[in-house]
Amino acid sequence: MATAPTEVRPEPASFRDPANRVFHVGDEVLRGLDTQAAEHWRALTASVFFPALVAGGKVCATEDAPPALVPTAAGAPWAAVLRHERIPFVSHPYEWSFTMLRDAALLHLEILRDALADGFTTKDGSAYNLQWRGTDPVFIDVGSFEPVRDGEPWAGYRQFCQTVLYPLLLTAHLGVDFQPWLRAQVDGIEADQLRPLFAGARRLRPGVLTHLHLHGAMQQRNAAASTTDVRAQLRAAGFSRELLLATVRGIEKLVRKLDHRPPVSHWSDYQRTCGYSAQDRAAKEQFVTAALTAGTRPRLVLDLGANDGRYSRLAAEHADYVVAVEQDPAVVDDLYRALRAEGQRRILPLVLDLADPSPGGGWRGVERAGFAERAAADTVLALAVVHHLAIGRNVPLPEVIDWLAGLTAPGGAVVVEFVHPQDPMAGRLLANKPDGLFPDYQRDVFERLLAARGRITDRVELPSGTRTLYRAVMGG
Model-level pTM greater than 0.70? Predict the structure, then answer.
């Protein structure tokens, strides 16, 4: 009996460069190349810098694949097809902390510097060209490499400014979180949007005058000129590959010096102030460990409200990969720095407001997939989260349960903590709300709702008597 062909799904974010297109075929990530892109690929594989970057894990592992695996381009077959390694979880730059974006920027610039020294450049400078293996950034846009032409600037400079450098300047110099700005526009922050914030003496802060004000002025001056005209002007002025390399080194030096260390927030010290006793903590860790090892080893675990990563680290001992989600950018940055120092490659920390998660964005709302579309987890940890959503953010309990179920892969499990109304933490939240606003926030109601969406396999009441943990297999 013949087997059904595997569905070929074009990657929604891969359409802007007609020379190559990414496809998903089952669990494989494939890239079709036209004739010129195939020539560039062959030159890449024969270069010195590219195989070294792949071997060092700085560029995603890539190999040739049979061209028949992906659909034809405009009626003609692709000249070549590549097979890429699959990134464990795709994230977006507006879900990264400051240090994550800075580390991704430094890798991007290192790759460009190595490429230029070997006669190549990159067509793009977007932050979206990078992903993560835990705390290791990795460059994924292999189709961006092309031979460098002497006398021409870096084509990706404007993209790099808008999606990388300007967000870093915004946070490092003004203390403003860049995440909402990047989330608002898929192409990043325009120079015109940022210049008013860097007027007066702020113009003199590192990188601002050159890369924001002068760059913006040049864009305005050359708005009517074609790209060909601008390139001709630069060549006539003596612009060379050596000058381009010096420019890249200068940007790299600037980015390396940018830093942001926000003051300690409420959430930074949450593990000390959240009110768990030693007995509660031990019982909770025992329950979570048992839940993670109750069935097949999870490929992906979501830790919602990860804070300092205590349970993310525990999950990483029993799962292939963990995404640690936390709302406070400062907390995520601290967690990232700690995980990076530990050499942790199986935990990815992300900035995400659980009551306002990343939506779909870009062209037709699907170019950048929303968090829910990317988060089919084998296990979802929702520890000390429900009361913050149901009471703190006024999300009805049925909606919370439906949301947890929607983040879980078919047959996956949810490990969830219900904080009783009598708990001190719930009491503090309720004290800020009108009386009688949450009559359904009760343990029996929560259990009934959870049982309606899944099969409760285990439960335990913590020694304090005001918190209960559940494991439920969703859809069961």
Answer: yes
Report the alpha-carbon distance of residue 262 to residue 57 in Å, rounded.
31
Return the ∠ at Cα 145 (arms to 143 and 148), rounded to 5°. Answer: 150
Strands 321-326 and 300-304: parallel
Which tokens go with 425?
A: 């933490």
Angstrom CA distances, 24 to 12, 35, 85, 276, stand at 10, 21, 11, 45
Query: What backbone torsions phi and psi does residue 353 show, to the nearest 5 degrees?
Result: -85, 115
CA distances from 13 to 10, 24, 119, 363, 394 (A): 9, 12, 28, 8, 34
User: Quick one: tokens of 204?
Assistant: 């003199």
Q: Are 378 and 415 in contact (CB under 8 A)?
A: no
Question: For residue 213, what are its two tokens?
Answer: 């004000």
Q: Are 37 and 79 a contacting pair, CB within 8 Å?
A: yes
pLDDT tens figures, 39-79: 999 999 999 999 999 999 999 999 999 988 887 765 678 99
Q: Residue type for 245, please? A: L
pLDDT computed for residue 89 by the predictor: 97
CA distances from 148 to 35, 36, 122, 463 (A): 18, 14, 8, 65
Q: Provide the pairing of β-strand 80-84 with 347-351.
A: unpaired
Beta pairing class for 321-326 and 62-65: unpaired
d(CA 352, CA 151): 43
